[in-house]
Design goal:
It is a single-pass type I membrane protein. InterPro entries: ITPRIP-like, Mab-21_HhH/H2TH-like, MAB21L/cGLR. Enhances Ca(2+)-mediated inhibition of inositol 1,4,5-triphosphate receptor (ITPR) Ca(2+) release. It is found in: Cell membrane; Nucleus outer membrane. The chain is of the alpha+beta class. Among the domains are: about 170 residues, Poly(a)-polymerase, middle domain, CATH 1.10.1410.40; about 190 residues, Beta Polymerase, domain 2 (2-Layer Sandwich), CATH 3.30.460.90. The protein is built from 18 helices and 10 strands. Strands 1, 2, 3, 4, 5, 6, 7, 8, 9 and 10 form a 10-stranded mixed sheet that branches. Helix 5 packs across helix 10. It starts with a helix and ends with a helix.
Length: about 550
């Protein structure tokens, strides 16, 4: 009962408090125009809805853009990872390939240096020898005596005559040159087949090289492909010759090698001496706007100097002197009134440091330097050391050794074959290189005169192997077994071996012609030898074979 009374009282009090008469009139919230307010609320609601839709679209676009950027970043990261993996595999493959190539070259080089002890390998070679029989000892001996010895008897007298005239011509050349401005010419030296006693084909031509040096106070600073400077592969075997002042070379100043800055001055060299006029360098036979000796300029100067020298001494001789070949500036010819003539080559060279290696401007009658990169690149010739090596080895060989005979016979056969089928890339220098390799690897007793036929076969098989592999290494460059008695520069012994057949790797037409000429020579060998061999009675031949 009390609870019920309490609830009734509470209800009455609540009704009284919430009665409208208890609030002032001005605080009333009942609007006077309900429809207008409702319309504005609807418009506001529509505006908010459109704004909400716009915001939702912007958020969606931003999310799509963010997803696209994230996807692009993921793709780029994956591509980077893939590229890194690909680069890693490429690098690894290249390393493996280079290791295999180095191993293969070392293996082949080792085989080349050990040819003397690998008769089985040499027997496996010689596929071109199938069906080809070399003449026997008697026929070879008769051929050599009639065709080779019969035509080389006048070489010594010709060498003596040419050397004497060349010395007189160079002495006259020194007298017509300006000692203060022109190059200084030294004494000439004989090189090549005429001075190594294996030239067989006429006309006999003496090859003389003439070292020269710049006038004071200048000097030559030589750079080779193996001296640490970067040379492309096609420039191996070449070098450059820089004309410098002697004091620059002696002091070793670094002002030409580094940039000192505009506000710094070298105390050893003034600005006047460091920047020489281009005309001065051209007078020193340098290439235009450089300090590098130009081979073409040297040959032009040498031709003019030789012409002046001959005009001075021509009254002393009863013959004429002329330049015989336009493409060989140093090719000279002596013409006698009787109609006979003597040809010789006088080629200017630059000495490499204090050795007998020389930079040569061009090779007369040779394709060794047919593709010189530029006139500032000079080929290196080792002809003096080659001559000394043959002389040194000859002292250890048996009497009347057959090494020179082998080279003479091959040179004669190759020349005859080229006269029939045209010239090829194979030269007498390649044949000589083959002989030098065999002289180093074969024991001395293997070069006895009665073993001419066997050694001739060795040279042919060795050459066939080189043609097959397209590799014939220069004898001196990269050869650590050069006799110490020669005094050969160590820098060339430590260099990478120089492949003389490298130019033929890319020139397949010349390589094919060279191989065809070699095989054709093998097939025609017996016919060519028999053509120049006197008739030998059968009984005499059998007697020789029994011996």
């Amino acid at each position: 009962m009390p609870v019920g009374l309490f609830r009734v009282c509470l209800l009455v009090i609540t009704a009284i408090v919430n009665h409208p008469l208890f609030f002032p009139k001005e605080n009333g919230t009942v609007p006077e125009n309900t429809e207008e307010i409702i319309q504005k609320m609807k418009e506001r609601e529509e505006s908010l809805r459109l704004e909400q839709l716009r915001l939702e679209r912007e958020i969606a676009d931003q999310e799509a853009t963010q997803k696209a950027l994230e996807k692009a970043a993921v793709v780029e990261e994956e591509s980077k990872q893939e590229k890194v993996r690909w680069d890693m595999w490429t690098a690894l493959s290249m390393v493996i390939f280079l290791l295999i190539e180095l191993w293969r070259q070392d293996f082949q080089e080792g085989n080349w240096q050990d040819i003397g002890g690998e008769e089985d390998d040499m027997a496996v070679l010689g596929k071109a020898f199938k069906g080809v029989a070399l003449p026997d000892k008697a026929v070879l001996a008769s051929f050599y005596e009639k065709r080779i010895l019969g035509t080389t008897g006048d070489m010594a007298r010709m060498r003596e005559m040419v050397e004497g005239f060349a010395d007189d011509l160079l002495e006259a050349l020194r007298s017509v040159c300006n000692r203060d401005a022109d190059m200084e010419v030294e004494d000439c030296m004989g090189v090549g087949s005429m001075y190594e006693n294996w030239r067989v084909r006429k006309p006999f031509v003496c090859d003389l090289i003439v070292p020269f040096a710049p006038p004071e106070p200048y000097c030559f600073r030589c750079q080779t492909w193996c001296s640490g400077d970067s040379f492309p592969p096609d420039e191996q075997g070449y070098g450059t010759i820089k004309v410098c002042r002697a004091d620059e070379d002696a002091t070793g100043c670094i002002c030409d090698k580094t940039k000192l800055g505009e506000d710094m001055l070298c105390l050893l060299h003034s600005q006047v001496s460091s920047t020489r006029p281009s005309s001065e360098m051209e007078d020193l036979l340098c290439f235009k706007n450089t300090q590098y000796l130009d081979a073409d300029q040297v040959m032009k100067w040498f031709q003019i100097a030789v012409t002046k020298a001959w005009n001075r001494i021509s009254h002393k001789y009863e013959f004429d002197l002329s330049f015989s070949l336009l493409d060989s500036p140093g090719a000279l010819k002596i013409k006698f009134k009787s109609g006979k003539s003597i040809a010789f080559n006088l080629t200017p060279v630059v000495q490499y440091e204090n050795s007998d290696v020389y930079f040569i401007s061009h090779f007369p009658r040779s394709s060794l330097a047919a593709d010189i990169p530029s006139s500032t690149h000079w080929f290196l010739t080792f002809a003096v050391y080659e001559r000394r090596f043959i002389q040194l080895v000859s002292k250890t060989l048996p009497a009347n050794a057959c090494h020179v005979s082998c080279l003479q016979i091959l040179s004669f056969l190759h020349g005859k074959q080229c006269s029939l089928t045209g010239p090829s890339g194979l030269t007498n220098y390649h044949l000589k290189t083959v002989l030098l390799h065999l002289l180093q690897t074969r024991p001395s007793q293997d070069w006895a005169p009665e073993k001419l036929e066997a050694r001739l076969q060795d040279m042919l098989k060795f050459l066939e192997k080189c043609l097959h592999e397209k590799k014939l290494y220069h004898f001196f460059i990269g050869n650590g077994k050069v006799p110490a008695e020669l005094g050969f520069p160590i820098i060339f012994q430590r260099a990478e071996p120089l492949n003389l057949f490298r130019p033929f790797v890319l020139r397949r037409d010349i390589y094919r012609k060279m191989v065809d000429t070699f095989h054709e020579m093998l097939r025609n060998m017996s016919a060519l030898i028999n053509e120049y061999t006197v008739h030998i009675p059968l009984a005499h031949t059998n007697g020789i074979r029994k011996e």
